[in-house]
């Protein structure tokens, strides 16, 4: 057995044992959705001319290695091993039945030369690039129509070197929408674990039109002032689990999405069956978010055991006129937040439009939102819930919530409009639309 093959074998066994111990220690997890696969066939990026010196461009080596995996189709799939070193590369496509394994000290580093980044079509549920009309830059790690894909390792790093892209955004010189760090489309059976993601040009991890996705034991990092560097954005996807991770970025930590205005309505693919648990992080924007792009609908989301620090908004459900779509059966519980501008925000006036052709009569429906067991310290404003006059938010149910801030009149105010529901054991005392005397109907089963 080659030395590197023996090394990776021991590393895989260690990772699997650690994962098994963590599962036993933590109780409820989503590990069964996409189990870790052992691959008998193993290759190294070094076998294809990879050089980890931080200067040599390795795009060709990655493409050739993945071409080998795709076309030889070994039984049980193939593991691509990335040993310690810094591997500069442009974007490349993954393939089905593969594991991308980053050893300790391994860094896949994105080139900062935009000419090395191919363009891809806009997503059909968005109709255009999210930032600029037309095409968009391909993500660093990309895949379409895949199954049984694992990105894992020994906490190696995928570094997007996003500062050049952030500066183009700030200077308004972008010609196309910035690339994600990882985007998998129309794919199933995806497992991402034990990897550090940092400095993404745009959103970090974006599963879109996917099913059976597990993202766990990851660290996602970007400066607080990096624009639109969302951590994880499940988008028009189902049966997704995000757990046991640390995220500190410049935008929402986790944001569930499903398409943008008339394009998302026409595509009609909701996000549903999303579980988010044991996430810790910080951001000037939202901790747990739904939206604002929710035109295909977002249904059945559970977020629990969340710890948030230095936040803009702790829990944020956001949509807008023209979005359409239904946001329903969203449960957020067991949240601790410290130093937040706003604790809870549910609003129908958030987000922009892809073009002037959106339908102003396409009103979102927001109902069945349960938020319970929330404790906050140094929360400037407890809550803001603004529904739509022609589509009031209903079934907004708050229970056992204590959001403490510095003494002053602002902290004691909940601002609400066009909303109905109930609240019990909420401090500061919520707005008149949500009172414990209304603990009937749709909210009664939630207390």
From TrEMBL:
Family membership noted in the UniProt record: Belongs to the glycosyl hydrolase 28 family.
The protein's name in its UniProt record: Polygalacturonase
InterPro entries: GH28_Enzymes, Glyco_hydro_28, PbH1, Pectin_lyas_fold, Pectin_lyase_fold/virulence
Tagged with keyword Hydrolase: yes
Keywords recorded for this protein, A-Z: Glycosidase, Hydrolase, Signal
GO BP term (any one): carbohydrate metabolic process
Signal peptide limits: 1-25
SUPFAM superfamilies to which the protein is assigned, alphabetical: Pectin lyase-like (SSF51126)
GO molecular function, one term: polygalacturonase activity
Superkingdom as given in the UniProt entry: Eukaryota
Natural source organism: Solanum lycopersicum (Tomato)
